[in-house]
């Protein structure tokens, strides 16, 4: 017996053939939001921690809010970036597996969610009465989206834009909590960000598979990026040393002065990793490289002890 009545029917609620179900799509959206990159937003803790006010409930709440809103804003820009780069990502051996490039997450869905998250961050700050934080978040979004659609293709501007995003994170932590931001602090953060970003580009240049077809890499040389890295590192260490010696007294001075040693050691470790071509993901280095972790832990311990003893 044959006919339409005898043909098997798909189960109700089952996704159509060739289409991923809602759960894989949701996982793809989460992957495109890049939660592993949220570690960068811990920079918002720097200003409250160095002021010795992180244990204060109002400051802790303001810092947590700032961190959460930067995670929302960053995820929005990552989704929009994946939509903008989808065509280029499909031609890359590794990036073609990204959810948007592979077709797992539809581009209109990613673009819509990205726009929603990007808009939600400054609006959330305004709703919390944090207009200064809203302005910094708006500046971060302008810079991030400018990088996505234009600046990433302009040599020099791509490095400056990424470093600027790091500096805005650190600035936001102080503004959202009403704490003073010193010139020393901003200089160290900006120079450190330039060091890390230049190292990232150099590692990508040394390891072509990591660059993902980045256009600006064709305009850089390892020698140029190494000089940028060395200049930024030297300037950062000198600036940090001046801060450590001029802003503390008594036992606190000894501790902050001693913190220069793990800072220099961490910088040297980063130089070594970059020259091996494995510094293209700085956030991964912090999570995986044990010597770097030990240096940073010693640096933080000495600085925080000095702050609380002063």
Automatic annotation (TrEMBL):
<keyword id="KW-0812">Transmembrane</keyword>
<dbReference type="InterPro" id="IPR044878">
    <property type="entry name" value="UbiA_sf"/>
</dbReference>
<feature type="transmembrane region" description="Helical">
    <location>
        <begin position="251"/>
        <end position="270"/>
    </location>
</feature>
<feature type="region of interest" description="Disordered">
    <location>
        <begin position="1"/>
        <end position="21"/>
    </location>
</feature>
<keyword id="KW-1133">Transmembrane helix</keyword>
<feature type="transmembrane region" description="Helical">
    <location>
        <begin position="181"/>
        <end position="198"/>
    </location>
</feature>
<dbReference type="GO" id="GO:0016757">
    <property type="term" value="F:glycosyltransferase activity"/>
</dbReference>
<dbReference type="InterPro" id="IPR000537">
    <property type="entry name" value="UbiA_prenyltransferase"/>
</dbReference>
<dbReference type="Pfam" id="PF01040">
    <property type="entry name" value="UbiA"/>
</dbReference>
<keyword id="KW-0808">Transferase</keyword>
<keyword id="KW-0472">Membrane</keyword>
<protein>
    <submittedName>
        <fullName>Decaprenyl-phosphate phosphoribosyltransferase</fullName>
        <ecNumber>2.4.2.45</ecNumber>
    </submittedName>
</protein>
<feature type="transmembrane region" description="Helical">
    <location>
        <begin position="59"/>
        <end position="80"/>
    </location>
</feature>
<feature type="transmembrane region" description="Helical">
    <location>
        <begin position="224"/>
        <end position="245"/>
    </location>
</feature>
<feature type="transmembrane region" description="Helical">
    <location>
        <begin position="291"/>
        <end position="309"/>
    </location>
</feature>
<feature type="transmembrane region" description="Helical">
    <location>
        <begin position="100"/>
        <end position="125"/>
    </location>
</feature>
<keyword id="KW-0328">Glycosyltransferase</keyword>
